[in-house]
Write a structure and sequence with these properties.
- Helix 7 packs parallel to helix 9.
- The protein contains twelve helices and five strands.
- It starts with a helix and ends with a helix.
- By secondary structure, the chain is α/β, with parallel strands linked by helices.
């Protein structure tokens, strides 16, 4: 690319930005990076001024070595094996051509990494993302353990969170995980918040209390739309997981196990009051969940 080409790109970027587009969009459309544009602007002669290596790496494969790697990887012996299998097989013979990463890179460069099975490759559709614009549109809920003084026994905190305001709209502490507990709690929340049928979606993971028959029947009766995390995807319910971390890592969290279920309920009640009315949540502009619920901004 010549200095004249760089000058034309800078002019086009400036004109596009002046017309209201972002610099990132203009650079993406022109096929250059924002870093390059910034670097050219600070160069009086419009030179590229990149500080790259002045020489090739000493261990770079030659053309003949690259051809040998491709020939071995596509040979009848190894054409159905992955580089993860090829490298140890050659090592057993006392041979070494390249690392697994290098073989993968060379195969991709030669367009030899295409799917070759008889069946169609597995396709996983991305789930539809939810977009909330006001309270009581999307709830997230989960269950977490609270330690008791009896080794191996726990109390279970059921907790529902409004995703828009981050307000804790309902919680209970029980001595077991049970779909009846979660369904009763959801019913109480819908009555307290005035939830109408087909108004709200409730998201959770794939646990038993979440997908139990009693809970699903309750959701159908209340007109609540169920939503579940993808199997084996740990970060599909981030709002509840983030709240549990805040709960268990706040300075008020007791360092010793709860002596009774009543003590656990008392502590959680105090935490919920603090979280909803005092805690300045970074995800909602450092406001409290209660104020976010009311202002709806």
């Amino acid at each position: 690319m010549t200095a004249g080409d760089r000058a034309d790109i800078l002019r086009l970027v400036e004109e596009t930005v002046a017309d209201g587009a972002s610099q990132a969009t203009a650079c993406e459309y022109l096929g250059v990076t924002e870093k390059s544009v910034q670097r050219w602007r600070h160069s009086p002669t419009l030179e590229d001024n990149r500080r790259g290596p002045k020489s090739e790496p000493a261990n770079k494969l030659s053309f003949e070595e690259r051809a040998k790697v491709i020939a071995v990887a596509t040979s009848p012996e190894f054409r159905d094996a992955s580089p993860h299998q090829i490298v140890p097989c050659l090592a057993d013979r006392g041979e070494y051509l390249a690392s697994e990463a290098t073989i993968y890179r060379l195969l991709r460069a030669e367009n030899l990494m295409a799917y070759r099975g008889r069946s169609k490759p597995r396709e996983v559709a991305r789930p539809r993302a939810y977009e909330v614009t006001e309270p009581c549109e999307l709830f997230s809920w989960d269950i977490t353990y609270l330690r008791s003084y009896v080794a191996g026994q726990f109390f279970y905190l059921y907790l529902f969170l409004d995703v828009f305001s981050r307000k804790i709209v309902g919680w209970e502490v029980h001595d077991c995980e049970c779909t009846e507990h979660s369904s009763r709690l959801l019913t109480k929340i819908c009555l307290a918040e005035g939830i109408q049928k087909n108004q709200i979606t409730v998201h959770s993971d794939n646990g038993g209390p979440m997908k139990g028959a009693t809970m699903l029947v309750t959701m159908q009766r209340l007109g609540v739309v169920p939503s579940f995390s993808r199997p084996s995807v740990s970060n599909d319910n981030p709002f509840s997981e983030s709240l549990f971390k805040t709960l268990k890592y706040c300075p008020q969290y007791p360092s010793k196990p709860f002596v009774s279920i009543e003590a656990a309920r008392d502590w959680v009640g105090a935490f919920v009051k603090w979280y909803n009315t005092v805690h300045l949540h970074s995800a909602i502009g450092f406001t409290t969940p209660d104020s976010r619920q009311i202002l709806k901004f």
